[in-house]
Amino acid sequence: MLQPVFTLKLRHKISPRMVAVGRYDGTHPCLAAATQAGKVFIHNPHSRSQHLGAPRVLQSPLESDVSLLNINQTVSCLTAGVLNPELGYDALLVGTQTNLLAYDVYNNSDLFYREVADGASAIVLGTLGDITSPLAIIGGNCALQGFNHEGNDLFWTVTGDNVHSLALCDFDGDGKKELLVGSEDFDIRVFKEDEIVAEMSETEIITSLCPMYGSRFGYALSNGTVGVYDKTARYWRIKSKNQAMSIHAFDLNSDGVCELITGWSNGKVDARSDRTGEVIFKDNFSSAIAGVVEGDYRMEGCQQLICCSVDGEIRGYLPGTAEMRGNLMDISVEQDLIRELSQKKQNLLLELRNYEENAKAELSSPLNEADGHRGVIPANTKHHTALSVSLGSEAQAAHAELCISTSNDTIIRAVLIFAEGVFAGESHVVHPSVHHLSSSVRIPITPPKDIPVDLHLKTFVGYRSSTQFHVFELTRQLPRFSMYALTSPDPASEPLSYVNFIIAERAQRVVMWLNQNFLLPEDTNIQNAPFQVCFTSLRNGGQLYIKIKLSGEITVNTDDIDLAGDIIQSMASFFAIEDLQVEADFPVYFEELRKVLVKVDEYHSVHQKLSADMADNSNLIRSLLVQAEDARLMRDMKTMKNRYKELYDLNKDLLNGYKIRCNNHTELLGSLKAVNQAIQRAGHLRVGKPKNQVITACRDAIRSNNINMLFRIMRVGTASS
Amino acid sequence: MDLNLNRADYLQVGVTSQKTMKLLPASKHRATQKVVVGDHDGIVMCFGMKKGEAVTVFKTLPGQKIARLELGGALNTPQEKIFIAAGSEIRGFTKRGKQFLSFETNLTESIKAMHISGSDLFLSASYIYNHYCDCKDQHYYLSGDKINDVICLPVERLLREVPVLACQDRVLRVLQGSDVTYEIEVPGPPTVLALHNGNGGDSGEDLLFGTSDGKLGLIQITTSKPIHKWEIRNEKKRGGILCVDSFDIVGDGVKDLLVGRDDGMVEVYGFDNANEPVLRFDHTLSESVTSIQGGCVGKDGYDEIVVSTYSGWITGLTTEPVHKESGPGEELKFNQEMQNKISSLRSELEQLQYKVLQEREKYQQSSQSSKAKSAVPSFSVNDKFTLNKDDASYSLILEVQTAIDNVLIQSDVPIDLLDVDKNSAVVSFSSCDSESNDNFLLATYRCQANTTRLELKIRSIEGQYGTLQAYVTPRIQPKTCQVRQYHIKPLSLHQRTHFIDHDRPMNTLTLTGQFSFSELHSWVVFCMPEVPEKPPAGECVTFYFQNTFLDTQLESTYRKGEGVFKSDNISTISILKDVLSKEATKRKINLNISYEINEVSVKHTLKLIHPKLEYQLLLAKKVQLIDALKELQVHEGNTNFLIPEYRCILEEADHLQEEYKKQPAHLERLYGMITDLFIDKFKFKGTNVKTKVPLLLEILDSYDQNALIAFFDAA
């Protein structure tokens, strides 16, 4: 049994996910963590009473070996590591919603302090691709930015949604690191510098990512899932009812391969094998885990796994020694194996007995009431499922419909559907009341996003009076565009917006794609090219036209730029297209974007004006204060009162000004997000190289503030004509 | 004292009931003992361990489910005759497996509990107790509530027969012949009885009992009255007690108390100088511990605790160390044994797998024919649905012999499902269209691999009644599911008690009409939990209840044609009135309902609520302050500048937070009950005060007892 080699109890709370170990003086590893009230504490157990009387750092009044660093803003991310290789020691990086601070703890000075408009909700430190100097990469509102030790941003790109987690990992095995980005739209994107090389869709917000080794990395979702990916393929995943707070790769059993260490919200820490997800070690804390890191905290030449709880409890573990033979829990492997095999045997015996009893039941008399009670049903009972599109009625909005029925007089007592990303939870249950039991059930399904979903169905079949039911299990796939109903074309309502591209595929293959990705009625018969199909969105009634010409030119008309992007991406993967240039025009959307861009300028100018006002006011405050104090010394109470009154009013103004600034800032953030998203969407309309070209070109256009150029790029895909 | 026990699994039989495994006495001192066990398939199996392998001594053919297994024999000789109770029959086997007795008791119910003493046989079915001597009927007693266990104090020491019945209504009934000498109230429904030290202690009158809510106690049964010796309250909220035994596992010459619980907990209690029990050791198994006994099975010379679990595992917790300290050769041999065992298991599995595949194919084929039927295999579900007094919530425990795949919970009444730390299943709440399908709650629990036991916590609201259904699907082919139903009664938070305070101001509800005693009894069963379904003997009966949340009480006395319900809580009376009139209308019975409302009772109830409410409000306020105070503490470095009250909060912070976490939504529930009280008070007066409820909530927000009472009076 692996025991912690040290246990500490600090009297400071630790904010979840904000823990880092760094050698801030080049030799002694110290633990830095964000705590309450916009502070960061640094626990330095090695050199006592070496305190630096500087403005930012002050010694914690609670503990002697803890110093506090005042950030005065809520810390949103924190890390430590080598930022400037020449310095020879680690820098501490602290991100807030508006700033990024790179701090030299040893000299107690700022390396740089940069304002970041998109906020910093995740941070990672390391080298990325061919960029030689280490970068502090932060992720915020749809944007990624990388700073070197001087605070220059050498890396900037956009991603689909707000960033929640970042990691550096050699994804394609070329010896250089790629950036993994987990965002709010449930996607893990892999950036080779600013080029997206892979995208993996998950089922919830990705809260943590960590590199394991090679191209393998671990991930955690906000619904309690943790797992391991190797490149784009998921190795394993498990789901718990608790949330994974922090994940880290560490070789705990000394077998040369890192395990995935997970710290859970219920205080559990477990180490799982990277191959199978099998638990090889676990421990319990009394409160939620805040962070899992590693470092040579005892300075004995080997790394320890360090787990911190939100209440400030810290435990360090040394990797298991060779004698333990990887057996970290206090059970014998053989005993466990025997138990498992016996359980298997018992299950098989049970199954065998079930068949025997079934055979016995068959011999007895024909079906009667009592049999129904015990759940005996005709053996040839079949279970049908069908997916279709329902246009809805007054009482019910339009939806995709799953119809489940049995082939005889048996009834369906309940249907359980386990699927991710479709329902509020992971499951949906249909349980008709006793009076409404029948042999068929219609289940409306409204997937919120256009993604293919596997529906795992469990249908309980029996009779009205049954207390036991047969469970029919089946998996059906809900196609990606199930929320679009085939309708007859109506030229009047054809959307103005379109995308246009050419693919070298036969029309039949396109029909195949349609069949696979849409819920088409069974009698749909699509003639040869050229043809056009028209769909209506069940969500908002928007029209979607897909036209194919003989030449292989495809035009997709829709006002929904995301949908157009999804269709292009889906086609690209179906036809295995690597690069696709697309011509696009979304007049309505572009007009909105133009307005947003104008607004961004406005917000910026308001921001500047407000800042100037504030500076003016602070001067005024100073003079008023001096005047008031003068008056007090002169015993001119009336003037003093007046001055203080003015001061009070000014204070009120300042508060109001602050509120306006705050509002302005949130609006600005919203607009910036919209701009970033627009770039992302423009990229999403293209595949492969053209996609990256669009993103880079758009970025340049924004930098040079050339709005017309931006729209041109979005339309034709390149900057040059 | 440090007790270190290592787990060793011996073998698995079928599903076992409570108290169905025993160790046969050893032939000589410190030799290994044989284990005898009976399961639900009706098989009695006796085996011993030889070199880590289980060697069967004998095994009977399958039959009826075995409910109990006891050892017996002539008094003052080794107790090595095996007796089993299956259905209404008692069978006896010698230790070699030869059947020497088959005794059909002709009881109408199947036997639930059995005790054997020489040639005396004490049996109980659900409500009936019977005493036989040499298979001849001697005494008979009909209990008012279900009998869970029966025991007789040691005849050889006391020279008189004192049978004791453990009854579900929280009472131990001490008998003499066919009559009750006296009744002893115990803190929970007793589930198991045992003689202290295996022989009744020093006096021979010491009796241990365990309850379904996890409490343990020792009582001396003297001829005239009971003497309570000690009681262990279930502070850690562990499972109910299923079995106890006395055995000196520590090796200090004093017999320790071994306890097995229904949440898989095995505990060892030692005794201190004052003869008070002290917990020495605990170990968690994953499923109910149905029987426990100390002895020596695995290896001679090493004492151990042998347990059987619900799914039929016979497991030893042995003092034998896992890692042998002897030479390296020894270790190798040990491993060899294991390897042999594993490889033999593997080959056995392979054969089975082949057989199963064949059968599976046959089964598939049968689905082609139109005449064939497909019966779902029945599997046994061990369930328990009980009210917890501490937090006034129900806990539902489901246990299946194989791993559970998923559980669907459906309810047609509004209830809250609470999170239980222990269970690891992923819960998901589904939306439900309540109007058309009577669903108020639909939730799925997807269990992790190897989960055989699931515990849920449910909070109900009094007055809202209906059925909770659990559909349990285990991981076994062919896939099937079983539904279990649980009634949420109108007065769901009430609990049976035996004494109430008669001085409280009471409201009365009287029912008169043309109905029979059993009809009225069925209504009482319908409304209140913990009432036996069988109408009690006698013409007139009285039950007392206590509200576990508010501590108000209810007295119900009824006979043919008349029922009187008294409670100090108006809401209780109001609920009863609504439910009873509804039920009567449904059954088209003419009922006269009259009630007598005592105005003072409202004030009394409010006063009863007051300390609880005040405590909760204060707690909520304190907990709210903790974070801010802690921040101040970090900022300032010390707490000297704070007023003592705040310093006190900081010192108790952990404790306060824990307390707060323990009772989620407690305040909301109290508010809800006060609101009900308010509405009900005026409902009886014929006025509808629903419009004034917001005003009431406002008063509650800035709570003051007098203001509240004044509001109740004024409105």
TrEMBL record, chain A:
Localisation per UniProt entry: Cell projection, Cilium membrane; Cytoplasm, Cytoskeleton, Microtubule organizing center, Centrosome, Centriolar satellite
Keyword Coiled coil in annotation: yes
Pfam families on file: BBS2_CtH, BBS2_GAE, BBS2_hp, BBS2_Mid, BBS2_N, BBS2_pf
Positions of the BBS2 hairpin domain: 587-683
Principal location class: membrane
Segments forming domain BBS2 GAE: 396-481
Keywords from the named record: Calcium, Cell membrane, Cell projection, Cilium, Coiled coil, Cytoplasm, Cytoskeleton, Membrane, Metal-binding
Domain annotation BBS2 platform: ranges: 484-575
Boundaries of every BBS2 C-terminal helix bundle domain copy: 689-715
One GO cellular component, as annotated: ciliary membrane
Biological-process GO terms, alphabetical: non-motile cilium assembly
Domain Ciliary BBSome complex subunit 2 middle region: 165-272
Any coiled-coil regions, as ranges: 331-365
Keyword Metal-binding: yes
Annotated ranges, domain Ciliary BBSome complex subunit 2 N-terminal: 20-126
Signal peptide: none
Binding locations of Ca(2+) 1: D170, D172, D174, K176, E178
Residues where Ca(2+) 2 binds: D251, N253, D255, V257, E259
PANTHER family hit by this protein: BARDET-BIEDL SYNDROME 2 PROTEIN
Function: The BBSome complex is thought to function as a coat complex required for sorting of specific membrane proteins to the primary cilia. The BBSome complex is required for ciliogenesis but is dispensable for centriolar satellite function. This ciliogenic function is mediated in part by the Rab8 GDP/GTP exchange factor, which localizes to the basal body and contacts the BBSome. Rab8(GTP) enters the primary cilium and promotes extension of the ciliary membrane.
Identification of the protein by name: Bardet-Biedl syndrome 2 protein homolog
Species of the source: Bos taurus (Bovine)
TrEMBL record, chain B:
Gene Ontology molecular function terms on file: RNA polymerase II-specific DNA-binding transcription factor binding
The protein's name: Bardet-Biedl syndrome 7 protein homolog
Domain BBS7 helical hairpin: 599-712
All copies of domain BBS7 GAE, residue ranges: 377-486
The keyword Cytoplasm is annotated on this UniProt entry: yes
Native source organism of the sequence: Bos mutus (wild yak)
GO biological process: non-motile cilium assembly; positive regulation of proteasomal ubiquitin-dependent protein catabolic process; protein transport; regulation of transcription by RNA polymerase II
Domain BBS7 platform per the UniProt entry, residue ranges: 494-596
Family matches, as Gene3D superfamilies: YVTN repeat-like/Quinoprotein amine dehydrogenase
Annotated function: The BBSome complex is thought to function as a coat complex required for sorting of specific membrane proteins to the primary cilia. The BBSome complex is required for ciliogenesis but is dispensable for centriolar satellite function.
